[in-house]
Structures are given as structure tokens and as C-alpha cells.
Design goal:
The protein contains 17 helices and 18 strands. Strands 3-4-5-2-1-6-7-11-12 form a nine-stranded mixed sheet, with helices on both faces. It has helices spanning 18-32, 94-97, 114-131, 143-155, 210-217, 226-234, 236-239, 243-247, 283-295, 318-330, 343-355, 368-377, 393-399, 410-415, 434-448, 451-463, 469-483; strands at residues 2-6, 36-42, 58-67, 70-78, 86-92, 138-142, 167-172, 180-181, 203-204, 207-209, 220-223, 253-255, 305-309, 334-338, 360-363, 380-383, 404-407, 427-429. Adenosine-5'-diphosphate (ADP) binds next to α1 and α12. Adenosine-5'-diphosphate is lined by residues 17-18, 21, 309-311, 338-340, 366-368, 371, 390-393.
């Protein structure tokens, strides 16, 4: 099959969160199964090309494009280091992508021309099959930004068929990222106006909702874990107002659990680590712990060293952690945190580091290497999320022999089994309250003191099958389902 993926992020080129890791790995896993995959991604200024300059980019075409009242000049470049079987087409569009920031300006201000940017990506992606003479089977877009391509595919390109069947699939990585704007702001997409006004598919309480429109424009929609898929159709808060829309899709909405790129996330080979290790010989993990302690300026007590890597936003349950932090330090835990996000959490964590020098360390930056070293060097990994579509961090922690402490929600519930009764791979709690997290930490501390039981727990987590092959096979099965005659897009 020929699969065209449209995305705003892709590891290792540009990463904000888990979306990048998924698009960094799934296309290659599909290619290994014999499919041809093209990924279309904006050519941001901040794109990391692994130190290679522009000379390493191949190919170049210029196409004029109308975006609302303006004209854009679009170039395609090809990433020379793409995985085998995968083509990555980078969309250059003058100042629209050649600026600092991905979803917003680095100072936190939104881009006033945000919709124009995603309209350009969408048009540029949908032109690829024709320009490249590549009859596409499935257009697979990720999240609301790239979902604009599915809106155009259905409502604008309907009269201009793509080469190939071009059936559509949308993957929702986080339902709370919807892109809500006044209806007039959608003008750059060139959609027929009735679509954004009640009862049109983009209308959402008087505003236009890009994600809602993309969901209703897709032949098939999925999210990234079975439990999150159930939660978002059953619960208004989890569904962020789209629970009815998703439930209405019936069997055209499914949960497919993410995998892990086992080449990148592998403690046996990881170049970011000061020492490597295996499940059979964890000596290197002790060296990683010692190096992490030094790197973060910690002087831990006898208790476990807790690690946390993530976006510091309410979703991640950071308030649960700050609720129990002083108590945890008093009980002998130490804490290493890496993350950026809400100013309020930065202040709370910096204050905790000042209150507990040597016991709490906080780095407010994006640092891929340090993230790897925290997964490897910590004793326990914290993920007390209020909700979690899939979560990759807990999967990385498991692979690095660092049992995760997680809330039983979304993908966390699907990937971590509680260690009660000396089975399972981590520590799971239910209530979104500090007390419940604390009870899980107490259980973890008790088990940590039993060396043999702890080793067995680590080994069970490290043995968990988490590569992309299973997920790629599931996506493949869904693509095939889309291409079966008789399965038509929703009217
Ligand atoms: P989400 O997609 O909600 O951010 P995931 O757990 O799915 O959460 O994925 C988060 C990814 O982003 C992981 O690869 C994690 O290591 C990475 N990450 C998050 N914050 C940072 C940071 N400050 N520095 C380095 N990596 C980070």
C-alpha cells in the first residue's frame, strides 16, 4: 500500500511530545511490512538535520498556492536520511514555517496566521500524490493541525480526485488539542461557509473546531490506546465536548496502542547513557544512577530516586506530585524532574529544589539526552497523569528497568500492571489525588527495600514487548479495511 502521512512533528527532525516519536517510528515499521510511506512535514526553521546542512537535502520544486487572499510559494525538499522505505517531503513556504516555534512563538504567544500555516501544509500534502506521480491508497493525518488535510480532501478536493483511492484516517494523539477559532478565521482553508455554521460539521458552540471537522471528514479515526478510546466516548470531561461525535462513529473509531522505537530506546545501545546494561546484568544501571545524581547535583538519601520527564501541564498531574513532594523527601525519596510548561509549575518545582537542595533537582528545558539519562538513572518513574491518551514515557521507563508509578487512566492503564502480589511491572493508583499517589509511593518504597523482588519487577518490565510491529500490523489491518470495496466515507 501507499500511505501518505501528514504531521506537524516527527522524531528526530522536530519534537514537542509523543506525536513526534510515533511518526518517527510508525512509517519505518510500515515500510518493514512492505508498504511505501511518504511523510509530509513542514520545513520549520528549528528542524534538526543531525548537523547536516542544506546540501544534504535532495530535490526541489516550487508550486504556487492560494491561501485565502494570499499566495504562497511552496517548495518540497526531501530528507536524505529518512529510514529505508520512507520518503519525507518537507514543505517550505517562506515565512510561514521559516520562523522560530512550531505551534506558537517561543515566548508563548500564538501565531496570528496559524490556520494559514496548517492550510499550506494540508494543500501541500494533498498535491504530493499528483506531483510525485504516486497514486495514494490512504491519507493518514495526525491531530488537528494535519487533520486540515482530511477536511480539504473531503470538502475541497472532492471534485479533484487524487491519483489513487486516497481513503482517509485520522489519529488523535490528544483530544484536548482541538484548535478552536472564530468561524471567519478558517477562511484560509477555503472551505464552503456552510460547514462552519450550525449544523455544519465544524461548528462547535458558535466557534469553528478543526479537530471536530477533521473527525467527521475522515473515513476512520483512531486514538492511541483502547482505554482512552473508551474513556473519550463515555465521559464529557475526557471527551472534551467531542464524546458524542466520537461515540457516533461506532466502529469507525478505534484505539490502537502506540509502540516504542526499540532502536532508539534501548539501554543496551543508547549513546546518551554513560553506561549500558541489559535485563540480565543491571550493573550499568547503577552507574547511570550515579552519573545522573552527579549531573543533576543530587545527594540522595537511602530511599528511591524518582524521575519525571514531561510537559509540565495540568494533564500530567504535576499538582499531585507537588502535593506529596515535601512528605516524600521527608521519607527519604529524592527527585529529578525534566520538563517545561506552565509557569506555575516551574515556580513550584524551583521552590522545591531550593527548599530541598541535593534532594530535589529541576531542569526547565527540553533535553533529549538528559531525558534518556533520567529514564535510565532513576529508581522509579513518575507519571501521575489526570488523563493520558497513551503515554510513551512509562514505556521508556519500563524498557530501562525503572518501574513506573502511574495513574490508572488511558494508555497508562493499558501498559502498566500493578506489582501487588509480586506480579506486574509498576505501581498503579486510581484517585487523582496526592494521597493516592502517596500510597503508591509507599508501596514502591517497601518493595524497593526487597532487592530480589525489585530485580524481578525490573526484569518483568524490561521483558514487556513494546516494539512497533504489533501496532504497525494493526494500522495495516485498518488501512486494508478502508480499501475494501463497500466501505464508504460517511455521508
Ligand atoms: P505527551 O505526548 O503528552 O507529551 P508522551 O509520554 O506520549 O507524552 O511523550 C512525551 C515525549 O516527550 C517522550 O519522548 C519524553 O521523553 C519527551 N519529553 C517531554 N518533555 C521533555 C523534555 N523536557 N526534554 C526531553 N524530552 C521530553
Amino acid at each position: 500500500m501507499k500511505i501518505l502521512m501528514v504531521t506537524a512533528e516527527m522524531t528526530p527532525l522536530i519534537k514537542v511530545g509523543g506525536l513526534a516519536d510515533v511518526v518517527g517510528a510508525l512509517p519505518a515499521a510500515l515500510a518493514r511490512r512492505g508498504h511505501e510511506v511518504r511523510v509530509v512535514l513542514p520545513c520549520y526553521r528549528d528542524l534538526s538535520t543531525d548537523g547536516a546542512g542544506p546540501a544534504d537535502w535532495q530535490g526541489c520544486r516550487t508550486v504556487p498556492l492560494r491561501v485565502g487572499q494570499r499566495m504562497a510559494s511552496v517548495n518540497y525538499r526531501t530528507w536524505a536520511d529518512a529510514p529505508e522505505g520512507v520518503t519525507v517531503d518537507l514543505v517550505q513556504a517562506e515565512g510561514w514555517f521559516d520562523r522560530p516555534g512550531i505551534y506558537m512563538h517561543p515566548d508563548g504567544l500564538p501565531f496570528s496566521d496559524d490556520i494559514e500555516r496548517w492550510a499550506i501544509l494540508a494543500h501541500a500534502a494533498l498535491m504530493v500524490p499528483e506531483l510525485a506521480d504516486w497514486p495514494v491508497d490512504v491519507v493518514h493525518a495526525h491531530d488537528a493541525q494535519a487533520g486540515a488535510a482530511l477536511l480539504l480532501r473531503r470538502h475541497v478536493y472532492g471534485d479533484r480526485p487524487l491519483p489513487g483511492p486516497g481513503r482517509t484516517m485520522l489519529t488523535i494523539h490528544n483530544l484536548s488539542h482541538q484548535i478552536l477559532v472564530p468561524p471567519t478565521d478558517l477562511q484560509p482553508l477555503g472551505l464552503p461557509p456552510h460547514l462552519v455554521h450550525f449544523p455544519g460539521p465544524l461548528e462547535f458552540y458558535g466557534q469553528a473546531n478543526l479537530l471536530k471537522g477533521a473527525i467527521l471528514a475522515s473515513d476512520l479515526v483512531n486514538t492511541v490506546s483502547p482505554t482512552y478510546a473508551r474513556q473519550v466516548t463515555a465521559d464529557h470531561e475526557m471527551g472534551c465536548g467531542l464524546e458524542g461525535v466520537l461515540a457516533g462513529l461506532g466502529d469507525r473509531f478505534v484505539g490502537i496502542l502506540n509502540g516504542v522505537d526499540t532502536d532508539v530506546w534501548n539501554p543496551t545501545t543508547d549513546p546518551h547513557l554513560p553506561a549500558r546494561y541489559t535485563a540480565d546484568d543491571l550493573t550499568g544501571k547503577a552507574a547511570c544512577r550515579q552519573a545522573l545524581v552527579e549531573e543533576m547535583g543530587l545527594e540522595p538519601g537511602d530511599g528511591p530516586l524518582l524521575g519525571l520527564v514531561g510537559r509540565l501541564v495540568p494533564q500530567k498531574g504535576i499538582d499531585l506530585l507537588t502535593d506529596v513532594l515535601d512528605r516524600a523527601v521527608g521519607a527519604g525519596f529524592s527527585l529529578a524532574v525534566l520538563g517545561t510548561g506552565a509557569e506555575e509549575y516551574h515556580e513550584l518545582l524551583h521552590a522545591a529544589a531550593t527548599r530541598h537542595p541535593g534532594r530535589v533537582a529541576f531542569r526547565d528545558e527540553f533535553n533529549e539526552g538528559l531525558a534518556h539519562r533520567i529514564y535510565a538513572g532513576s529508581d522509579l518513574f513518575l507519571m501521575p497523569s489526570r488523563y493520558e491518551p497513551c503515554g510513551l514515557s512509562q514505556l521508556y521507563a519500563l524498557r530501562y528497568g525503572t518501574p513506573p508509578v502511574v495513574r490508572a487512566t488511558g494508555g497508562l492503564a493499558d501498559t502498566v500492571d500493578d506489582a501487588a502480589g509480586h506480579s506486574g511491572t509498576g505501581f498503579v493508583f486510581n484517585d487523582p489525588r496526592g494521597e493516592a499517589l502517596w500510597a503508591a509511593l509507599e508501596r514502591a518504597r517497601a518493595l524497593h527495600a526487597d532487592r530480589g523482588a525489585w530485580r524481578a519487577l525490573q526484569r518483568r518490565g524490561m521483558a514487556r514487548e513494546s516494539g512497533w510491529d504489533r501496532a504497525a500490523a494493526e494500522y495495516e489491518a485498518r488501512y486494508r479495511w478502508l480499501l475494501e470495496p463497500g466501505v464508504r466515507p460517511k455521508g
